[in-house]
Amino acid sequence: MLEGKRILITGVMTRDSIAFATAERAQRAGAEIVLTGFGRARRMTERSAARLPTPPDVLELDVNSPADLAGVHDELAERWGHVDGVVHAIAFAPPDALGGNFLSTPPESAETAFRTSAYSLKALAGALAPLMPAGASVVGLDFDASVAWPVYDWMGVSKAALEAVSRYLARDLGARGVRVNLDSAGPLRTPAASGIPGFDALASSWERRAPLGWDTGDPAPVADAVCLLLSDGARAISGEIVHVDGGFHAIGAEAAA
Predict the structure, then answer these.
(1) If DSSP codes are grouped into helix, strand and coil, which group holds residue 37?
(2) Are 155 and 97 in contact (CB under 8 A)?
(3) In degrees rounded to 5, what are phi and psi of residue 219?
(4) Neighbours of 88 (CB within 10 A)
(5) pLDDT for 138-147, tens place per residue?
(6) Are the CB atoms for 142 and 159 separated by under 8 Å?
(7) CB of 181 within 8 A of CB of 229?
(8) What interhelical angle do 220-230 and 18-28 show, nearest 10?
């Protein structure tokens, strides 16, 4: 499905992450991939990379650093000449922006959540757009931002912003033939989820109420959907939010009760 495609994947931390599952499936589907990491966490990415079918290189990328974004562009331009796909699996909110602190969150923490979790999609896509030919695809990882979830607070606001950013990118990159979509996943027990207070209550609701059921320990369905959006099979899809959540999003507000 991805034979011959060259794809940059961010956000691989541990083998439990959606990004790792995506990297593994992308390789098995024929893609050549490169991962990113930064700072001390880069060592975790490198350890995970070593467990992939073909261990890929890991490039330094703090998505909030213009110098790092330029460096990744230059490296991929020299290495590949073009980029067929980009996976944005980056999100962060300071502890005081989560857990029921919505009214007391300082502006600096809200701004950090927005910049790292939403603006970064534009920053990454914008940096690599000159390398993306017609048919290239940008895919971001999302969590349903159509309602206010307990304890999700400013990360929920940031995900709403991410959804808006993806639509504007789809508008502006569409003229180049580049697609931009989001994969809205149900809750998964990933490293990112461990930092969300009250995650277990949210996840248990999904397991009980999703029409197809939901396994919070299995990122494979989400990763498979990301690979589909990266493929030519989704060549006419852009500006879309694809829900991979067992159908939970479709069954009404009472599901979240």
Answers:
(1) strand
(2) yes
(3) -80, 0
(4) 28
(5) 999 999 999 9
(6) yes
(7) yes
(8) 50
Q: Which two tokens stand for residue 168?
A: 């504007």
Residue type, 31: A
59 lies in a domain?
Answer: no
d(CA 57, CA 13): 14
State the distance between the two ends of the chain, measured CA to CA, in whole angstroms: 40
Report pLDDT digits (tens) over 19-61.
999 999 999 999 999 999 999 899 999 999 999 999 999 999 9
> Sheet of 6-9: strands edge to edge?
58-60, 32-37, 6-9, 85-88, 137-142, 179-185, 241-244
> Do 49 and 12 form a contact (C-beta atoms < 8 A)?
yes
Residue 177: domain span: 67-256
CATH number at residue 247: 3.40.50.720
Residue written as token pair 């690979």: 227
Residue 167 lies in a domain: yes
Comparing CA positions, the residue from 216, 237, 241, 221 lying closest to residue 159 is 241
67-95 mean pLDDT: 97
Length of the chain: 257
Weakest mean pLDDT among 66-75, 95-104, 116-125, 157-166: 95-104
* Distances, alpha carbon 134 to alpha carbons 2, 111, 138, 233, in Å: 15, 33, 12, 14
- Residue positions annotated with a catalytic role: 152, 159
Domain count, the chain: 1
Q: What's the pLDDT at 200?
A: 74
In a domain, 8, yes or no: no
With respect to residue 163, please indicate whether it lies within any of the assigned structural domains: yes
